[in-house]
Amino acid sequence: MRAASILVVILVWAGCFTESALSAAEEPVEAATVLAAADDEPDTAEAKKEQPAEEKKSEEKQATLKPLTPKQLKELLQQRVKGSIGYSFRQFANMFLVSSRLQLGTGVGLMTPDQEIAKIPLLSPFPASYRPTLREFLDSIALQTYSKWKYDPSSRYFKSEIDHKGPFEGLAIFEFTKTKREKPFEVKLAKGWKANDEGTWVMYVPPSFRVGMDIYEMGTYSSDKTPTDPKFFDKIRQDVSLEWAQKMNPKATLKDLQIKPVGKFQALYFEAMIPSIFKKDVKWRQWVFMDGNQCYFIVSTILPELEDKIYPDVEQMLKSFKVKKK
Q: Sign of torsion, CA 156 137 321 274?
């Protein structure tokens, strides 16, 4: 049986399957080879010292992973995957181990030793029309989990009861660990407003209400054929904008999108009155624009009776938006 067919699905928990994961579960598997749970602590030297002699002997027989060469790693990170992301990091990691093998030919293990990262819910920033590279995909997850990722060529997250004749192939592990990250943009706060960093987005809260404006980092994008073509990035801006507009109003079309400035950038703008949790309609406004290959999405929801108090501040902050020098 090929190594790729041995990749086990038993870590995919019941109730957490996506459609792609369900089809993957039908593939032949060998239940004796497993990847540690996405938030398991990796094996450490201290833990090994405390193991009884019988366990140490068993460990010596454990299979190891065959590390990717620099060329293989580069090629893997450049391959494209479906942009759909959901559930918590732990749950999604379990599903992605299966679906990534179907998409890439290599199972991708998303691991973290941090319980907080494992519990964070994930969302996809990518429009349905776009398939991100694996690198862009991992960057998006890291942004949402306040973490950084790195390829882990060791076997510390890998466990097996099978006496393999050689290193296990067809599996790449990426570890996510906490990190501090400075936002790549800045906005001059209006008087009395507060900013809360929520990972992929910043919530701007006015003094008169609990919501006012949010700024989202909607991922980075690339084209295999035309990497610097402005038309490609215009299409990304259009797709992100229209997809969100249609979530607010299913009848929205490209004709409903207008060009409006945000700082020095030209954004696609859309507005609509939508139902809200406040039991009355609110004014939804959105701006989508590109800074090179980085997409930004800004949204403001305001109750009609608070328009005069909040929206002038929103306009003021939009004018002040700028990307920090890299």
A: negative
Q: Which two tokens stand for residue 193?
A: 């407003």
Is residue 107 predicted with pLDDT exceeding 50? yes
Q: Per-residue pLDDT averaged across 12-23, rounded?
A: 28
**Closest listed residue to residue 91, CA positions, set 112, 77, 75, 105:** 112
**240 C-beta neighbours (distance < 10 Å), count:** 27
Residue with the bigger pLDDT between 64 and 10: it is 64
Mean pLDDT of 117-133: 95
Instruction: Using alpha carbons only, give the angle 31, 95, 180 rounded to the nearest 5 degrees.
Output: 120
Which residues lie below 8 Å from residue 242, measured CB to CB, with a gap of 6+?
252, 253, 254, 257
pTM of the model: 0.80
**SS3 string of the chain?**
CCHHHHCCCCCCCCCCCCHHHHHHHCCCCCCCEEECCCCCCCCCHHHHHCCCHHHHHHHHCCCCECCCCHHHHHHHHHCECCCCCCCEHHHHHHHHHHHHHHHHCCEEEEECCCHHHHHCECCCCCCCCCCCEHHHHHHHHHHHCCEEEEEECCCCCEEECCCCCCCECCEEEEEEEECCCCCCEECCCCCCCEEEECCCEEEEECCCCCCCEEEEEEEECCCCCCCCCHHHHHHHHHHHHHHHHHHHCCCCCHHHCEEEEECCEEEEEEEEEECCCCCCCEEEEEEEEEECCEEEEEEEEECHHHHHHHHHHHHHHHHHCEECCC
Question: What CA dihedral angle connects 8, 13, 17 and 21, to 10 degrees?
Answer: 0
In this structure, what is the dihedral angle of CA atoms 213, 265, 245, 299, given to the nearest 10 degrees? 0
199-207, long-range: CB within 8 Å, 24+ apart, which pairs? Answer: 199/120, 199/143, 199/144, 199/145, 199/146, 200/123, 200/125, 200/140, 200/143, 200/144, 204/317, 206/309, 206/310, 206/313
